[in-house]
Input
Amino acid sequence: MKTRLLIGGTLACFGLASGCATNPVTGKKEVILVSEDQEVAMGAQSDPAVTAQFGLYPDQKIQKFIDEKGQKMAAISHRSNLKYQFRVVDSPVINAFAVPGGYVYFTRGIMAHFNNEAQFAGVLGHEIGHVTARHSARQQTKALLGQVGLMGAMIASPRVAEFGEQAMQGMQLLFLKFGRDDERQSDELGVQYSSKIGYDASQMADFFQTLAREQQKSTAEAIPDFLSTHPNPEDRYNTVHQLADQWKQANGNPTLAVNRDQYLRLIDGLVYGEDPKQGFVENGMFYHPDLKFQLPVPAGWKHQNTPQQFQMADPGGKGLLILMTAPGASLDEAAQAITKQLSLQPTESRRTTINGFPAIAFVADQVQQDQQTGQQVAGVRVLGHVIEDGKTLYVLLGVAAPADFPTYAPQFTSVAEAFQRLTDRDKLTRQPERIRVKKLTLRSNLAQALTANGVPAKRHEEMAILNGMQLNEQVNAGSLIKVVGK
Ligand SMILES: [Zn+2]
Output
């Protein structure tokens, strides 16, 4: 959970006006659905929502780097007339995405995984390519960024799963999913644009391998934009290599930059993985140092923390607990907003106090529509608690099918009643891991170099992926590698 949440921040779906225009990249006439003004308006409208949801990564040096490279590339792109904005957002997920009108975002997670400026530039070109070729303007579908809604996969009850999805939807942002042809074209543009500003575009191909390895490592992780619509990363790897070679030959074999050391110096100190200040689980307790509260996780329950909410699900997948901040200026306002947003019909409600915090406890039913028959069916029963902590309001929702509700209700209650102020200094001041760049004094293989720099064996494979290398690969004395540490 982030400190500041944007609840109900769905981007309004824009009206579709069709017309005919020339595609800036292909030069061909095509029917377009959204005018350039509308694209710019979409970007301008979504930018505050994106930055509020994820937060900007607070490092001027890195923000300046992405802006400088981005503006340089935008100037040589097919749509240099747009006002581009480039931002690094504070998310550990590995992703980059573009919003129409020229807004391009990279996560700190993807910044940590690049191993040189050329890889970064290739992906930058790919994202700018989506904007310049107007892919987003052609295809508008809702897709989720990052880890949102992953618990859905482990919820056995379809009604509870549907509720979980719905609880997210008020907070979803509009993201665009592109087709395979669009991705292919963006790869081509990525090669072209990054080569034009002087980078070796074949490095982008190597980055696909980092993504593929990362994906294999964790099946739960969301699939980054670059891989999502490409069933065959190998094919894409080869194509990008070929395109990069072709560009070089056609342009008199210029010397192109990779800039490995410069890039590693830039990201030395970058936060790596989850940032504990946005919440973490330890020994059966969820701690949120920024918001200064703690909440127990029932034994054996799975949990997931996203910028929007903290979710817990029982191992059988029939009970779900969702904690999020609630809109409104009072307990009553928050309760009303939540019940309205989720179409809940309260059957009982009472004022209470939880460890000194004023609260409202309520039971409510949600009527759902059967997706097959379209008929109204008994959906889920919810035990809700709205909790007031100064200006911050929380809602904790325990969700189960009506038949299962009596089984879970006592557990929902005991979790809610254990919500309390976090005062443990150790938890309040917990620090994230950061990228630490080390200069090797001896020639050795990567595994030996990692060991020499204090990396335990169980994290060697993770560090190999982070460095874009194999553990048995030789590394020269004087070269830089990434490790992580506090
Ligand atoms: Zn893409």
User: Anything to note?
Assistant: The pocket of zinc ion is lined by residues 126, 130, 178, 183, 186, 225-226 (CB under 6 Å).
